[in-house]
Amino acid sequence: MKQNEGKKERKSLVFRFLNTVEQVGNRLPHPITMFAALALFIVLLSGILAAAGISAEGEVIDSTTMEVTTQTVSVVSLMDRDGLVYMLTHMVTNFTEFAPLGVVLVTMLGVGCAEPPDAQPVSMQTPASIPAASIALLLRFMVCFPPFLSW
Description:
- The protein is mainly alpha-helical.
- The protein is built from 7 helices and 2 strands; from the N terminus they run ααββααααα.
- It has helices at 13-27, 31-52, 81-89, 91-96, 99-114, 132-144, 146-149; strands at 55-61, 68-74.
- It has a two-stranded antiparallel sheet with strand order 1-2.
C-alpha cells in the first residue's frame, strides 16, 4: 500500500483562487439585472441629493485663459422631467464616448468569431485544464495591454 493513497491531493493556490472566483460569480445576479438596479439607484440617489442641496466645489483650469478657477457643481436630479429628458437624449453619446466600451465590444466579437460553433469555449473549460503559466501570462497581458488600446 502506498503512503499517499489515503490522503487527498492538495490543490494549487491558483486552482483554489479560480474556484473561489467562480463560486462568487455564480452567486451574482444576471448582468442586466445588476445594470438596471444600479441605474435605478443612481436616479434615486440623484433625486435625494438634489433635494438636500448637495454641491461640490473644486479648482478647474479654464481652457481659454489657462488660469485656475474655483467652480461649484450642484447635484442635478434625474427624477424630474428635465432629468428624464437629459437621460434619454444623452444615452447614445454616453455609451459612444466611453472609450473602453468599443474595445470590449470588438474583443467580444473577435472571441465569438474565433471559436468554432461546436467547440467548448475556452472560457468555459475547467481551471485545471489550463496551465498555471498560461494564466499568469494572460493576467500580465491583461494588466499591461489596456494602456496601449487608448492610443
